[in-house]
Amino acid sequence: MAATRDVLILGGGHNGLVAAFYLAKAGHKPLVLERRALPGGCAVTEEFFPGFRSSTLAHGGTIRLEIAHDMKLAKHGLHMLEPEPRLFAPALDGRALQLYGDPTTSAANILQFSKKDAGKYPHLQKTLARIAALLDRLLTMTPPDIDNPTAGELMHLLMAGREFRSLGRDDMFRVLRWGPMAIADFVAEWFETDLLRAVIAARGIFGTAMGPWSAGSTAAMLLRAPADGNPIGGAAFPRGGMGALTQAMFAAATSAGAEIRTEAEVAQVLVKDGQVTGVALASGEEISAKIVVSNADPRRTFLKLVDPVHLGPDFVVKMQNYRCNGNLAKINLALDSVPPFTALDGDNGNAAALAGRIHIGPEIDYLERAFDACKYGKFSEHPHLEISIPSLSDPSLAPAGKHVMSIYVQFAPYKLRDTWANQRNALGDAVVKTLAAYAPKLPEMILHRQVITPADLEEHYGLTGGHIFHGELALDQLFTMRPLLGWARYRTPIDGLYLCGNGVHPGTGLTGQSGANAAREIIKSIKR
Prior knowledge:
- This protein has 528 residues and is an alpha/beta fold.
- 37% of the residues lie in helices and 18% in strands.
């Protein structure tokens, strides 16, 4: 075995890099082991066609501001682009919603659809911003020990309770009532315009195995509110693609004293007498460590990397039933030009309107039918699409005059009746056909198409079940139950083995909060 390391971190995704930074800053010397040739996990920029670079998987997301500040990401080269409008949502009747960061500007655009909705939209944005302060406290907390909470945990809960009381009667009741609601019911209480309802509802079902009529889908939307209180979310992305974010994180972590090794795939977590002792790499090399932190998803960690003999049978059964089957696919297109959308014909601001996110999904029932398909092992022939054309704001991603289009596709189930090898092209065709209804000239502008299925997410990126959040963001897999009740505090049944990825609280994507929370708890345990 090699010399013992303080801490080993398995996986160089964003949460692993955040955890490595905070551990190094606290005086430890973490070694990050990344199986691929470049760190970044799901936040990478890669060339997928000669001259065309794209955010291969995630094409947007907001790192928590406090984390970005601590890591000095701007100093390490991160430059965020925030186009306006934030979101463009075309309708088949030729109209389109354009929504902005400023609620008054958004309301002015909503007016063409509904005077009532234009008046209520700013109210919703202000309400979510108020509630976001409470939710933010919860997301940065370590879930309490249900049986024996410490004095510190009780204090954090008390402070959260005070924050809750400070909301006032109306907002307190809203939080309690909204969490379990279907997002379709939530938006129906606020708005009458089908397209506006669908745009907001999409934030509650993104990356999940839920449709807008699924109970608890509003909770998924509320979890994202602290990152951006806007009902439609943000539209910020880094210059250079999402890989620029993780490259800045890489630089921050190494500057703090962390070491990162690429092409170092971990084959097994080594355990003796209930205590972690290190890892074995696929190459045969073994590295000993007192603490191992897994940035892999919980199912991969406990059912593949750890020998089940070291875990209790009850724990193993519960982990086998941890829901982790994804329903999201990704398509990247190399385009000869900017596709003209029918809803923008004759508009000189065509490029500006498309620089943020583009929503395809005209109504709640459309989104629900897209979800229905995946329940029966099929991908939707008329999928919900979230699209960005990042080269409009960042020309470095494509040759002069050419463009990159990045598309999230819902719903495309991991468990398909057929195989994804047989259905890959059919999925790509369905997406292009769906989009062509709004941008008829798009098919003739496509120079190349990259289709990434849930099976690819598992095989090439290590996401069990192809789930981008390392597990379903459902009410029974959140907070004190993420990933399992009794094991939501970043520790595991094996002494010295911790989790830091999206499979632990809060698990909401690219904020980096799961990694920061885990690092805080690991540092505390080392001090003890």
